[in-house]
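Sequence design from tokenized structure. All designs in this work follow the same two-part layout: the structure record, then the generated sequence. An example of the structure record is given first.
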């Protein structure tokens, strides 16, 4: 049995493209709206950085200075192995750790570990500027 087409069927145009055009139009509108929202909703954050070179410290803040020569707690030399005990003796006083540019990074990590072991909750860290800057 052969398939026979009538003359009307031969003149029939291909598939209807109206639904495809509707989808394309909706997608174009969607992307136009989304691109407009992305420009208006995403804005750069304005951050104001502190302008002081010194840490914000109250008079009762202990100062731990880290240099290549060693540690100083309130301008008194402290051996590395006694640091945790000396920090624990501070009680609840805030601590400001000031690291010079020549201090090893491991020294800063050890100081932070000692402050955590001593139970200090208020610890500030600052990098000391070189004299020429």
């Amino acid at each position: 049995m052969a398939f026979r087409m009538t003359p009307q069927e031969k003149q029939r145009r291909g598939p209807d493209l109206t639904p495809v055009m509707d989808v394309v139009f909706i997608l174009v509108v969607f992307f136009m709206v989304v691109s407009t929202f992305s420009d208006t909703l995403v804005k750069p954050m304005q951050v104001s950085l502190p302008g002081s070179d010194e840490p914000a410290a109250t008079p009762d803040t202990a100062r731990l200075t880290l240099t290549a020569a060693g540690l100083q707690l309130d301008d008194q030399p402290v051996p590395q192995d006694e640091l945790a005990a000396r920090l624990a003796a501070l009680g609840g006083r805030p601590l400001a750790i000031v690291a010079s540019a020549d201090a090893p990074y491991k020294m800063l990590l050890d100081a932070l570990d000692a402050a955590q072991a001593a139970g200090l909750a208020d610890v500030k860290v600052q990098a000391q500027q070189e004299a020429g800057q």
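The domain at 62-127 is CATH 3.30.420.270 (Nucleotidyltransferase; domain 5). We note this feature because it recurs in several other targets discussed in the main text.
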